[in-house]
Amino acid sequence: MMGRISGLELFSGAGGLALALEKNGVRHEALVEWNKDACETLRQNFDENIVHNTDIREFDFSQYGHVDIVAGGPPCQPFSLGGKHKGSMDDRDMFPYVCEAVSQCTPDVYIFENVKGLLRESFSIYFQYILLRLTYPEIKIKPTESWEDHLKSLRTTQLSSNYSGIKYKVKFCLIDAADYGIPQRRERVIIVGIRDDLNVEWSFPKKTHSLESLVWSQFVEGDYWKKHDIKVPDLDCYDSRTRNTIERMHGQAWLYPPDTKPWRTVRDQLRGIPPPDETGTFHPEHIRRNGARVYPGHTGSFVDYPAKTIKAGGHGVPGGENMLRNSDSTVRYFTTYEAKRIQTFPKNYRIHGSWSESMRQIGNAVPVEIGEIMARSLIAAVWGNESSKQIAGPSAVAGFG
Fold first, then answer.
1. How far is residue 50's CA from residue 29's CA, in Å, rounded to a whole number?
2. How far apart (Å, rounded) are the C-alpha atoms in residues 300 and 69?
3. Per-residue pLDDT tens over the stretch 155-213
4. Domain of 122: which CATH number?
5. More confidently predicted of 361 and 91
6. What is the pLDDT of residues 183-195, one digit of tens each?
7. Which of 113-117, 177-181, 285-289, 348-352 is predicted least confidently?
8. Residue 301 has what DSSP assignment?
9. Contact 302, 266 (CB under 8 A)
């Protein structure tokens, strides 16, 4: 009988991707994270014995031998649209260590997440280099070799028919979490590799939700407002893209609704959660914070639309992205509990740290449900119906809802 699916999670953060994989049958050998508060979050939700609070540059991947899945979210600051844009010149670029983990552990599958900025034209050559390193992980960079020279070697290998080492089929895709039912507009690059010798064909899951379907439910059929028992807000509450879509759908003869589900909104996700108070009566993480205000470019997340991307921020929490905006234009900060739910963490998943630290962890996390969609698709493609491979004892906190 084959064993369970083993996993190694790098840059685990608050554990969004780790939890998604575990819920789909992966037994983690290790969760590696350098931030002490994030590690405490991991210990509160997973087996504390697999949490390693260490610098990835000092971690020995070889101690685990082969693992089935390597996953994680390498630090995104070097490629972030809001960062310093240093890319490969940034000492926070951890992709070389991602490649080393793949080389050492030879997983059947790997999955990594990063920001949209990774696809910036200025990073295009380095991104090609990352993809080729992940394709041919056994061709390692020499101590005195620059990444540019290493790229030349990898390109030579790509054109050669003599390579007999481990090779991966690598695919990447820019996805918007809202298109998969997450109540948040969150664009991220997902990189997936499958061992070439497994002869597995796989494609990214199709989109299941759309803006057009949300507009249909709100402004054509009107069932959205009936479901929530509220009045239709002024169109000025919406951004220009949505207003244009509303006008277009009203101006055309739409006889049938779109064949996708509506984007999930903030109101959809937070339904049943009372307004926060200053004592956390409903939940210890649901505490009201004062001081939220609107300023140019930062108007908050409209309640009847998917949230703007929950942000971590390099210098504290950016209020505009992490605010709730009501139809009467009043604003307030999201609580930790609300932000956690918008990132689709379970209700009883515990986040350790102050509000700003908790929001940093949540903002850096992979939405759990996106991870589940990708994990479910990959595991089905690679391991199929090998049920013994898909049953893992729950090391995470029980009773997810």
1. 6
2. 37
3. 999 999 899 999 999 999 999 999 999 999 999 999 999 999 999 999 999 999 999 99
4. 3.40.50.150
5. 361
6. 999 999 999 999 9
7. 113-117
8. E
9. yes
The set of residues, in sequence order, having a beta carbon less than 8 Å from that of 199 and lying 6+ positions away, is: none
Cβ contacts of residue 295 below 8 Å, gap of 6+? Answer: 320
The verdict on residue 400 lying in a domain is: no
This prediction's pTM: 0.89
CA distance 378 to 183: 23
For residues 109 and 171, give the distance between their C-alpha atoms in angstroms, rounded to a whole number. 11
CB atoms under 10 Å from CB of 100, counted, come to 20
The runs of H, that is alpha helices, within 217-302 are: 223-228, 240-251, 266-270
Strand 109-115 relative to strand 69-72, pairing: parallel
DSSP 138: T
Is residue 252 domain-resident? yes
Question: 143 and 53: one domain?
Answer: yes
Which has the closest alpha carbon to 98: 6, 191, 201, 187?
191
Residue in the block written with tokens 């739409």: 254
Task: List the beta bridge partners of residue 128.
Answer: none
The set of residues, in sequence order, having a beta carbon less than 8 Å from that of 152 and lying 6+ positions away, is: none
Q: What are the angstrom distances between the C-alpha of 107 and each of 100, 144, 198?
A: 12, 27, 11
The domain containing residue 113 runs over which residues?
Answer: 5-207+367-389
Question: Is the domain of 233 the same as that of 90?
Answer: no
Angle between helices 95-105 and 124-135 (to 10 degrees): 10
- Indicate if 270 and 256 belong to the same structural domain: yes
Residue 357 sits in a domain of what CATH number? 3.90.120
Alpha-carbon distance of 269 to 261, in angstroms, equals 15
- Residue the block writes with tokens 């140019």: 296
Name the residue with tokens 């890319």.
Answer: 87
Please state, in angstroms and rounded to a whole number, the distance separating the CA atoms of residues 104 and 138.
9
CA–CA dist 72, 137 (Å, integer): 17
Return the bridge partners of 137, or none.
none
Tokens of 190: 């997902």
Q: What angle do CA 13, 18, 22 make, to 5 degrees?
A: 160
Residue 395 within any structural domain of the chain: no
Q: Torsion angle of alpha carbons 249, 251, 256, 261, nearest 10°? A: 0
How many Å apart are CA 26 and CA 10, to the nearest integer? 14
The answer to whether residues 191 and 261 belong to one domain is: no
323 found inside a domain: yes
